[in-house]
Fold Antitoxin Xre/MbcA/ParS-like toxin-binding domain-containing protein.
Amino acid sequence: MSVNVAVWDAVQDTLGVDITAALITGQARICKARAKFFEYDADPQNAPVEVIKRFNFVTKIVFLLEGSYNDFGIQRWFLRKRAQLDDASPLEILKGDWDPQDPEPQKVLKLAKETYGGQSAT
């Protein structure tokens, strides 16, 4: 499994280091997430498979949201609590050690698809 470095950079530019780190590193605490992220950022191709899976999943979400939001709006989308997520934010669901195939991350992806499809995603 590999990472397209240009996409890695684009997602990081869109989300910023803190949100990207929190979403993909598997670390629940932001200081540890940032440290791990900078390790992976030096050579994304050698990131662990779990990190690459998370990154590819987050990339799908970001690409879906780009049709409806600018970078700031996408960042806020990840931070905003949602009724569809039991009043959690996408970031809260996708923080720490998670698997893209788990039900909760799939709810986040569904929410992004609804946003992309023009349906209400409040």
Summary: The helical segments are 5-24, 30-42, 49-65, 71-79, 90-93, 103-116. Residues 5-116 form one domain. DSSP finds six helices and no strands in the chain.
